[in-house]
Amino acid sequence: MKSKVGIILGVILVVLLGYILMRPTAAKTIQVNNELCPVSGKAVNGSDTYVHKGKEYNLCSDECKQPLSEHPEQYLPE
Ligand SMILES: [Zn+2]
Q: Is 0.70 topped by the overall pTM?
């Protein structure tokens, strides 16, 4: 009887472990908190931001969103 309980617990453990390992990484946005706009090099305005590959970059103005969305690799490290 005890061994059956052990097997069941083992199966539950494996399923739980598999679930934890297989679940997609949480979609969490990382705040870069940059003080200078990656596009213009000016000080950020504190309201306009752009999210790229899960990282949120601060921008100096709304106008920098377009070039950034078109050529992110040109302005951002990765
Ligand atoms: Zn800018």
A: no
